[in-house]
Amino acid sequence: MDRESLCNTKTMTCFLKLDLIIESPLRIFNIELGLTDINDNAPHFRRDRIELDVPESASPGERFSLPNAFDPDVGANTVKTYKLSESEHFTVDIHSGSDGTKYVDLVLMKALDREEKAVHNLILTAIDGGVPARSGTANIIVRVQDTNDNAPQFDQAVYSLNISENSPAGTVVIKLNATDADEGPNADLTYSFTLYTSEKTQEMFSLNSNNGEIAVKGTIDYEDMKIYEMFVEAKDNAPVPLSGQCRVTVYVKDMNDNYPEITIKSLKNTVDENIPVGSVIALVGVSDRDTGDNGKVNLAMNKSLPFILNKSSDYLYELLVSETLDREKVPEYDIMLVVTDEGNPPLSDNETITVHLLDVNDNAPQFPQTFYTIPVMENNAPGASLSSLTAIDPDLHENQYLVYFIIEKEIVNTSMSMLFSINPENGNLYALKTFDYEMEKEFLFHIEARDSGVPPLSSNVTVHIIIIDQNDNTPLIVSPWRAHGSEVKEKIPRSTDKGTLIAKVIAIDSDSVHNSRITYQFLQNTDATLFSLDQYNGEIRTMRMFSYRDSRDQRLVVIAKDNGEPALSATVTIKLSTVETALKTYTEVPLEYDIFSDLNLYLVIGLGSVSFLLLITILVTIVLKCQKAKPSKAAPSCRNSVISERNSTIADSTLVSNDAYWYSLFLAETRKGKLVVRQPAPKGARYIVSSLPRSTGVTETSDSAASTLQVRK
User: Fold this and answer.
1) 680 CB contacts (<8 Å, ≥6 apart)?
2) What is the 3-state secondary structure (H, E, C) of 408-430?
3) Which of 256, 254, 234 lies closest to 245, judged by CA?
4) 386: which strand partners?
């Protein structure tokens, strides 16, 4: 019998009422059967698994009701006690109900920490009071419910890292990691910058609120900011959120991304060309916003110029003049300054300084030639332009404006300014008179060009005027001599032999050698077979002996023609009369007679007089040299040339004669191989004319107003 199924009482012994019916005889008996319980049932829990959710914020002593165990046995055999598996946090408290049922409570002894242990697995054992005792168990799963009691924590409180400037946008700087020991919403974190993070920093960097990733947002420039500090907060999503913070320090690494700069602090754009060497033209400052080697700079010029850079400090240079400047060679300088840093690769920049040179009157006028030889045709018209003597002055403005004038010099008591004139503005040279080659063959003087600078500078040039001969003089027949317009009459024997010299025609021409070269021709000849004429020396000779058929009177017209263009000529008529008897043997005797004719006699007398005057001049010169010489008038200053007395004397040597006849005689002497020279005599004396052989070398020396001729063999 199973008491638990038959009895529904809680007493140890239950009575069963039975009606016993005996059929034969029929009898009914009322029987009460007392059924005593035995411990044949173990306690059991209605659920084998009991789950409890306990907040970790529960305080010790807090109680949690547990379902009690059921044991169908009664009395001592029913549930007597409960036992809990070992736990430092929980225990059980057993108490009895009014009906004797044992109830159990789970009591918290120690505060829970979900982060330490989120689930507690306990075994609750119910034990009855039977002998032997039976028991039943149930698993208690205590799930500790999270409470937002843990603030988020970063891996580090301070992060330090480097980043290169100019890193592109989107570059990840760092990914922050914060953890929260809580769970669920209490562990869901949101990242953000705190108020301690500057707006400048927030403009440069972005923060991902979900994963804590910091990335470059703006343009990072080392020169703008070298260090960025970010204060980042991680906050959970609990109703009452907790947060954790960290500091991120970003050091910007300098890159050579800034070009060095040049600053002109002081500059002289215009300077005089005679500025002293070592003068300061400009103060130049250099800078580079980079640091280290990237910020070290060097300044130099891109090419060699007469300037130098002097480093006065790390970032200041002086631009100095290193050589003498000359505006006429280089009027201005474009100085390119190049600054270069020491980065890798190096960066550079440049700045150009323009320095203009102001003109200083440091250049004297210069003629293209130091000596001008100007040919002038005689018989020129007064006021005719001879040449243009233009000097060049490389200076500017008033330093370049030139004035021309003739340095005064007297020739035969005639001032040079009376013979020539020069335009003071353009240097055009003019003749003021008509020149005659036969009177003046050359002139030597100086022309000075002077600028308008302060002080003025000047230079001069030697001008040699050469008078060019024109064929303007007709040959003059001097032998045989005859009165003007008359015939020459000669008598010769008819027995004259062949080749006998009958007459000699001598003509002179005062023109130059070329124009004065005389040739002789018969203009008229009674018998062309009887006489011959040498075209060069003018000798008339017989070509044969006279015959009885020949006329007694022979008329010869000889023309003397010069070599000019057009040629000029003169004629002489010789009338020859033949005689039967020989008056004289006319061989060389006529030549002797010709030599000692009246004309030649006059010539000899004239030459003797000239020689005497020359001797007197030499003696006077010697006497003057023995005396104390007076200071001679100094010649005007000349920068480029010195007037030699020799040239001056030669320039003064102009043949002068008042007697055209004597002048013709002198030219005749020249034709005979002698050189006619005129020397200025001492003051008060007349001009001396001397003749020297052409082969004689003549050297003129002048120590005083007189001159001496020295003859060199």
Assistant:
1) 412, 649, 652, 653, 687, 705, 706, 707
2) CCEECCEEHHHHEEECCCCCEEE
3) 234
4) none
DSSP for 478-546 reads EES---TTPPEEEEEETTPPTT-EEEE-EEE--S-TTTT--EEEEEEES-TTTEEE-TTT-EEEESS--
Pair of tokens at residue 463? 């001008």
Q: Which two tokens stand for residue 344?
A: 């890798």
Residue with tokens 């030699």: 644
Q: What is the largest CA-CA distance in the chain?
A: 260
CA dist., res. 377 & res. 299, Å (int): 68
- Residue 596 pLDDT > 60, yes or no? no
- Quote the pLDDT of residue 148: 85
Do residues 594 and 502 touch, judged by C-beta distance below 8 A?
no
* 509, 475 contact by CB (below 8 A): yes
* Amino acid identity at 194: T
Which is nearest to 649 in space by CA: 357, 400, 444? 444
Q: What is the pLDDT of residue 671?
A: 42
**pLDDT digits 0-9 by tens, 187-236:** 899 999 999 999 999 999 999 999 999 999 999 988 889 999 999 999 99
Given its phi and psi angles, is residue 278 left (phi above 0), alpha (psi -120 to 50 degrees) or beta? Answer: left
Strand partners, 403: 450
Across 453-473, b (16+ Cβ under 10 Å) vs e yields beeebbbbbbbebebebbbeb
Model confidence pLDDT, tens digit, residues 222-281: 888 999 999 999 999 988 899 999 999 999 998 888 889 999 989 999 999 999 999 999
User: Over the range 173-185, which residues count as b (16 or more CB within 10 Å of their CB) and which as e?
Assistant: bbebebebbbeee
**Of residues 129 and 651, which shows the higher confidence score?**
129
Cα separation of 67 and 49, whole Å?
10
Q: What is the rounded (10 degree) CA torsion for 62, 65, 71, 75?
A: 60
Q: How many CB atoms lie within 10 A of CB 692?
A: 15
- Whether residue 592 has pLDDT greater than 80: no
Per-residue pLDDT tens over the stretch 136-148? 999 999 998 888 8
Describe the crossing of helices 598-626 and 660-671 by its angle, rounded to 10 degrees.
Answer: 90
Q: What percent of the chain has pLDDT over 90?
A: 35
In terms of Cβ atoms closer than 10 Å to its own Cβ (0-12, 13-18, 19+), residue 37 is: buried
Q: For residue 388, what are its two tokens? A: 């243009």
H or E element in which residue 199 lies: helix 199-204
Q: Does the pLDDT at position 564 exceed 90?
A: no
Residue 407 pLDDT more than 80?
yes
The pLDDT of residue 12: 65
**How many other CB atoms are there within 10 angstroms of residue 657's CB atom?**
17
pLDDT of residue 415: 82
Amino acid making up residue 539? E
pLDDT surpasses 70 at 541: yes
How far apart CA 433 and CA 382 sit, in angstroms, is 5
Cα Rg for the chain, rounded, in angstroms? 75
Candidates 501, 499, 480; CA nearest to 574 is 480
- E-strand spans in 151-197? 153-154, 158-164, 172-175, 178-179, 189-193
Q: In what order do the strands lie in the sheet with 102-108?
A: 63-66, 102-108, 90-96
Averaged pLDDT of the chain: 81
Q: Are strands 13-23 and 26-36 parallel, antiparallel or unpaired?
A: antiparallel
